[in-house]
Amino acid sequence: MVPEIDFHFHNWNIDQGSWFSGRHRYSRHIPLWTIYPDWGWGTDDSEQALSYVKRFGPVTLSNGHIHQIRQKVEGKVSFHTAMSTAFPQPAPGTTPSAGPMKVPADQLQQVLGITDVNYVVSGRSLAVVDSPLGA
Fold first, then answer.
1. Do 73 and 65 meet the contact criterion of CB atoms below 8 Å apart?
2. If 113 and its partner were Cys, which of 7, 55, 98, 132 is the partner (CB 3.0–4.6 Å)?
3. Is 2 inside any structural domain?
4. Contacts of 24 (CB under 8 A, 6+ apart)
5. Would you give the distance in Å from CA 15 to the centre of its chain?
6. Which of 3, 83, 66 is nearest to 32 (CA)?
């Protein structure tokens, strides 16, 4: 089983004695990396949160909030944002603000989706798979 913690603002409850080895997955609604601050796609406390998890073994940080797939890797930390099951949002900076995008009904299932996070015994990280609802 992969340990999972739901981060909340200024609520970093990590039992430091048991979290230093193995694979870890942390979930949070707001990204722990700044994607586009003008739209609230990042937080002022993300560096503090990252300082707690960077010392662990392989770490996967997942979030929603921006309703689109974004990924990056820094050292042993993998960042992943997921598609939405509710509504798509525009790419950062392409409109004055974030918010639901109107898309033709026949395209909706291609811009909405789910993310599966799988533990792979032979790998050093978790397998993150995004699938549109229309797949």
1. no
2. 132
3. no
4. 2, 3, 4, 5, 53, 56, 57, 58, 59, 60
5. 22
6. 66
